Every structure is written in structure tokens, then in C-alpha cells.
Amino acid sequence: MQQQPRIRQITLFDRSSTAKGLGALVALDASGSIVLDSLSTTPRVGNFADREYFRAHQKRELGLYISEPFRARLQKGIWSISLSRRVNKADGTFDGIVSGTLNLDYLRERFSKADVGLGGTVSLLRDDGILVVQSPAGRYEPGADWKSAPIVKKLKSSPIGTYWASSSMDGTSRVYAYRRIGDTPLVVSVGMSSRAVMSTWWLTVKLLAVAYMVMAISVIALVMVFTSELRKRYVAELAQAALARSDALTGLVNRLGFAEALDAAWRSARRTRKSLSLLMLDIDYFKQFNDVLGHLQGDEALKRVSSIVADTIRRPNDVAARYGGEEIAVLLPNTSLNEALAIAKLIRFAIEGLAIPHPNSRYRVISASIGVATAIPSDDAPLSLVARADQALYNAKDAGRNCVVIASDVNNLPVASFPVNPA
Q1: Helix, strand, coil shares of the chain as percentages rounded to 5?
Q2: Of the residues 326, 327, 339, 352, which is catalytic?
Q3: Closest C-alpha among 320, 344, 345, 316 to residue 331
Q4: Domains and CATH numbers, the chain
Q5: Can you give the pLDDT at residue 411?
Q6: What is the C-alpha to C-alpha distance for residues 307 and 311, in angstroms, rounded to an integer?
Q7: What is the pTM of this model?
Q8: Cα–Cα distance measured from residue 207 to residue 296, given in angstroms and rounded to the nearest whole number
Q9: What phi and psi, each to the nearest 5 degrees, are found at residue 303?
């Protein structure tokens, strides 16, 4: 949010708002007002606190939510649906939503290309009986109530099937084939008129087989099309989530990503009763390095140190994060104190081995001080481990820097500092 509007727009929406049929992608605050907008660097003025999907997220955590159809207020009243997710504050309370809209005219156009015969229809509905969109041959508007329709009862027993029924709108008897789309609340239904089906039957069994094949292929094609749209959105969400948790300079996890990883690792270690270790690393005399050689050289040195740290930890669950400035945190799940100490030594030697000249350091090269803490989590907060590792880091600085100091053993009994002298 601190970036210039144009840079923020490109970062947030450049790749996630280009899918065909996609309307606006917006972020709404807890009051329902737009704070980020894919269609404008300056968010358009609008409040959507009254929308059904906003109220649904406001009440509870839902994951991905697919809304009832509605007419978009800021997009010429076109029929749309919203695919949205809840945004929480750090304490888990409601902080707004991120919502993207799909243009129902786009889906109706795709449905119109399916050959389902004269009087045939293609419908997309939610499993609660709310119609999302129907092919041009249908007579129902988006949002129509189908709760009493046979398909809703059929869905309770099977996610895929066929049945015969007469339309209450035009009285036409049709055979319907339906299928739920993955694990979403959406269902695709294809209906062909009984007359068309039976006429081909009386002509030849082969033509009937072809008709059913066309119908089946149409259903599969429609499912694939809509699944593809959902997959694109999911991939875009993953990319945005990864970007939000990555430090742009070093490529390490940022402070937000570290907090989430620490919380998850703490809960896992408490459940399995296995040790969790944390290294807090600080580059020695880094301010003096920047003062003498400039911030560009400082950034380059920080990137090289970060790369060494990332290369030293290789297990999938290990996490290296830029904790702040020149301070790096290394989270080591299922790692004993001795193992963590060994890793800290490797990192310290590797950083010194870079031999980056530092004229204002007593060691004449870039070096690092490292604090090590290990715990078997109990009822303490995860930040207690951070505090202990941070204190060990300060002890390392007091011990002359360019050394490793441990805070305490896994039983939280204090032990002597364990500096590793560079010599």
C-alpha cells in the first residue's frame, strides 16, 4: 500500500485480471468500501456491504465463496457472480474481502455454442437451487429460484446423473444430464427436449447414440471450460499469496511469512513433542559498511549473505526469513540444539568465506553474529522462542561479534554462552 498507485496496480492485478470474461477484481475493507480496484489505479467509489457474499464472509470463514447472481453497479448493471475470499486481521477478526466477478454474458455465450438441439437448454446453478445462468434458449433470468426443481433433490443422492422432467415455464418435456463441478457448489445441467430425443430414436439407434455422445461431450466441455476459469483464478491467488510473503531484495520469506511459518511450526512441534530451533542472525557492523561503501553495495552484500543462508538449509520445512534490516531468522523444525548449533556454525563460516571486504570491521570482511534457541513448545507463545534467540544474538554481539551463542537447552535451563571465535 506504500507503493505508487501505478506500481501497486501492476503488482496486484497485472496477471490476475486478464482472463476472458473476468469483470472487476477488488478488495473491500471491513465496511464494504473499495480499497483496491483492478480497473482503476484510483479505486472507484462504491460500497458493497449489502451484497449477499459480503455479508456471508462477515459472519464466518467460508474459504472460496461463489455468490448468487447480481447486477454489477459499477459495470453498467451487467449480470455477474462474485468469487470471493475473506481477509482477516492478525487476530482473526473480519477485515474485508477480495472479490472477483465473472460476466454471466460470457458464460451464456459459451453455452450458446453447445449443440443441444431445438428447445434444448444448458444451465449453471448452485446446489442450493439458485440459477446462475442459462443458455439463450432458456427462459429463466439469473437468480431464479430452483429450490423445488427435481435436480436439487437428485443432487442430494448423487453428484452426477440423468432424469426426465417437464419445464414449468414452457411445459416442454426434456431429458436432463447434470454434473457437479469438482468440489464447488456449482452444477452444470444440460436438457434436451424429449421430442428431439425420441424422433432420433425412431429413426435409428445410431443417431440416438450420437445425440447422447454429443450431449456428454458438451457437458464435459462445459465443465472443462468452467474448471479452467477456476484454475486460473486459483493459480493467480497462489502467485499473489507468494508475492505477499516474499522479500523483494533478498528473495527470502518476509516478516509476514515468517510469522505464519513460526505459528504453524510451533503448533506442529507442540502436537508431536519435538524440538523446534530458531537462529537469529545479524550482519556485523552493517551500518558502517553502508556508510563507507554505500547502500547499493550494502544491498548486494545482504543478497549474497541471504543466498548463503538459503543454500545452507535444505529441508522442505526449514524457513529463512528477512526479519528486518540486516537481520535474518532461520526456523528449523524438528531440530535439536546441537543440530541447530552445527547449522549456525556452517552459516557463520560460509558468510565469512564470502570474503566481502569490510574496511570498518575488526575482521576486515563481512561477518555475522548468530543467536541460537531451542524449545519443545508447551503453552508458551511462539514469540518466547524469538525472544530467547534474540537475546542470544545480543550476547553474541557482546562477546565480540562474528560468533555463535546459544540461549538455553530444550528444557529452558540457562547455560553458558557458547561463542565460536572466528580464528
Answers
A1: 40, 25, 35
A2: 326
A3: 320
A4: 5-103 (3.30.450.20), 113-239 (3.30.450.20), 255-406 (3.30.70.270)
A5: 38
A6: 6
A7: 0.44
A8: 73
A9: -65, -40
